[in-house]
From TrEMBL:
GO function term, MF aspect, one: DNA binding
Stated name of the protein: XRE family transcriptional regulator
Residue ranges of domain HTH cro/C1-type in the record: 14-68
InterPro entries cross-referenced by the UniProt entry: Cro/C1-type_HTH (IPR001387), Lambda_DNA-bd_dom_sf (IPR010982)
Classification lineage: Bacteria, Bacillati, Actinomycetota, Coriobacteriia, Eggerthellales
Coiled coil: none
Gene3D superfamilies assigned to the protein according to its UniProt record, in alphabetical order: lambda repressor-like DNA-binding domains
Biological source species: Eggerthella lenta
Length: 78
């Protein structure tokens, strides 16, 4: 899987979780501290997501970063 594919998968996962929480794009953007158009671009896999924003997205969705990125290692495992 290349970087572009990973961006698309990340965006899809974020959108799925946002929908499950019944959050509009605008409301979610306010929660994570970014513009709604940026959220749309993220969900469509069109932009790279900085780690700091990824952390805020995970917090806003009530999940761990690994749940967004597909890294499901056991807690404490390195």
């Amino acid at each position: 899987m290349n970087a572009s594919d990973r961006q698309l998968e990340l965006g899809k996962r974020i959108a799925e979780l946002r929908h499950a929480e019944r959050l509009s794009v605008r409301r979610f953007a306010l929660i994570v501290g970014t513009g709604y158009s940026h959220v749309i671009k993220i969900e469509k896999g069109r932009v790279d997501v900085r780690y700091s924003l990824l952390c805020r997205i995970a917090d806003g969705l009530g999940v761990r970063v690994g749940e967004l990125t597909g890294d499901h290692r056991a807690e404490g495992e390195r």
